[in-house]
Fold each of these.
Amino acid sequence: MVCKDFAPLANTRSLETLKGKMHIFSVLHVNKTLKIKMLSLVKNLKKAII
């Protein structure tokens, strides 16, 4: 009976952990996308200058 009392709490912790991990991965993905776009812009500027 004690385990049943803690089950919702453990489930909430798991969801919070998952939410945190998803946030980190989404931030990393956006950062990677921005870096790729910036590199592409720099390459195009170099071509335009030359």
Note: Residues 1-50 form one domain.
Amino acid sequence: MRTAGKASLIGGIVVGLACLALWMAIAHDLGGSTLPWFGAGCVVALAIGTWIRLADL
């Protein structure tokens, strides 16, 4: 089994943070920039960042 490289880890982190920033920007525009929206954004960003890391994109 091949292990994922450091670039995959960094890419997953960057994509996760970018997803969270976009999530919060959209939530702010929709008037939902509260703690539950932030929590949901963190879950989504974590899931997408993990997927990028594991898929080695």
Note: Helices lie at 6-29, 35-55.
